Amino acid sequence: MRVFFLFILFLYPMALSGSLLSESILERSEVKAAVRRFTGVEHSFLQRGLKNASLYLPSVQDSVREKNLPEDLVYLPLIESAYSVQAFSRAGASGLWQFMAPTARFYNLRVDFWVDERRDPFKSTEQALRHLRDLYRYFNSWELALAAYNAGQGAVKSAVRRGNSLDYWELCRKHLLKRETREYVPRFFAAAYIAKHPYEFGFAFDEGRGYPAFEMLTLEKPIDLTVFSKRSGIRLDELRFLNPELTRLMTPPDRSYNIRIPLDSVDSALTVYLNLPAEELTGVARYRIRYGETLGAIAERFDTTVTMLKLINNIRNPKKIYAGRMILVPLHGEKDIVDTRPFVPVKDMDAQEIRYTVRSGDTLWEIARRYGSDIETLISINGMGFNSILMPGEEIVLWIRTAFRR
Q: pTM score > 0.70 for this model?
């Protein structure tokens, strides 16, 4: 049975391009319910996603068309990340497409101490579309491919086998997919439909925004973005915006790196890069190790970390350093380094922590609105994601001010 099943999956004709929003899909009660949520309690979330999408949509659309995929897939990041490259779930998913690190690495996205290419809007888009195409080629159903993007290919394969069906909606009726996945696909269809008709639903794109023009500069020696910004006159926030995959304020020292430079600043960037020695570009100084010093003590002295010292000096065993050895130390502190950990909010002094028992029909957005919280804080302190589903009887934590207590 399994051999025959795989034969059907891989030899059945594949319709990759075209719209996913058929009339029958839009008439489904699950999709209509998702539309009501987006136009109600989740309005601000979707509107923020549409505003962010203005920066990236043209390039994502180009990639989708290049791969001959359904154009509606450009709206998937709306429900994944609100189209934010900085989105980072407590589960560890990151970027526009919310890749988990193992999946990202499988699709050749680098995730290490220096870079996290899940946050690169161009590279991550290319690989997310490859992943979606692979899932479609396996299941020959966009509903199942989207479900697998959310739940994992193995979970959907298991549901298909147990339900003896390739119909996503039937698998949902049989409750063979987890609740989050049962709601994920209708949410995608609803978000895509609204995004294609925003004004009808009270939404709008930020048409005045667009991704800034840039040029790629290949670096054969590392640079410190803080130093490079001051020397070249390019604002640091511009460099960080154009290169969100950098997890440090320094480009990788162990390999060449292609950095994005604002188009109108290429000449000044080249002048600085070509004329300054490597030590000045990297914002480091030479330091001679004293007798009895450890990397830990040196890291504390220069407001950095042992990890950073090991990496920029290619030190594999920190116990084998010796007095008199010259090493490089950062001139700026670790406080200047981009924090890549999940967002963790700080509770205000006048806020009180309470536990709320979820009732039937509750959603994260409705609870956040009711208690005057923002959705990011709510999902963060409860270890959830934007697509998390609440179950009646489940307890969640709320930070509320007295004015919002009910």
A: yes
